[in-house]
Amino acid sequence: MRIAELAAFVGMSVLSLLAQPGPASAETDCKAVVAPSPFGPDDQTGATNRVTPAVTKAAAAEIQTGVVTSMANPLVDGIPLFGTRFSKTILSSFATMPGAEFGNNKLSYMEDTYLSQSHVGTHIDGLGHIGIQDCYYNQTPMGKYVTQNYLKRLGLENIKTFATRGVIIDAVKVFQAAGKLKPNPACKTPCLDAGTVITVADLQAGLKMYNVTLREADAVFINTGWGDLFKQWPAQNAAYNKGEPGIGESAAEWLAAQKVVAVGADQWAVEVIPGEEESIAFPVHKTLITDNGIHIIENVRTDLIAAEAARTGRATFFLSMTVPKAVGLTGTFVNIEAIQ
Questions:
Q1: 197 - beta bridge partners?
Q2: Whether CATH 3.50.30.50 fits 33-82+119-339
Q3: Whole-prediction pTM
């Protein structure tokens, strides 16, 4: 065999070997791992399917005074980031030097570059964010839909809308009222300590405080006080990331049964860290996102709307939050406002 023919043969053999699926890439039977969507086998939208025109119209009735309360933290270099995530902004200025301006009116301009992962700051987790093995929401075998740049299914572009009613549950007040608040000394204001489990009973007590009953398509936000450490960045970044108070798996299942569209909190995972069972990784994420198509919103600033609820006696509001139609993305930073 000539050298050229041998090289071609070896090349084809290598490509053939690379094309063979190995044991690690064997497709999981997703029907045995993840529940089907109640919205049909082709559904990529998840719980926001529940936000109908009637839901939005009812939510608009929450706007009585027009008071707008911010629920997002500033997105800036130096805030706490989970794991190895990174975020860096670079400012570019154009035509600012004398003689370099555009036109007779001497126009100049500025632009920004984000060198950032999407799950930083106040952000939303999409349905393509969490799975079990390669099985994601609606029994999707995600291995088929992963590319170098984005997902071909379950991207953020499939979200319908969050024009719905928001509800704040003040877990700090619940624990204070029950006499079981064990604060963290690093918090400058009252907070639940890391590892504190927020139960179904705690959520129900928080709703009862303001005579609220959850409705289908509500978005629920939980104030744990842990966000106080976020506001102290960078001094308390390590403490903030080390753990957190949050809901347990039973509370997540209860919220899913109420057919909410999103669950947010003032910490980095919504669920309690360390978890209730050490060997199980992020079970609340799996329950809400993978099994039920319910979005998680992390690093929410909940203290201001919790204070407003205490002042006015109203824990419900019209949720103003839009998500970019970012094709194939698993999450993104968002701005959130509560309008009452």
A1: 246
A2: yes
A3: 0.90
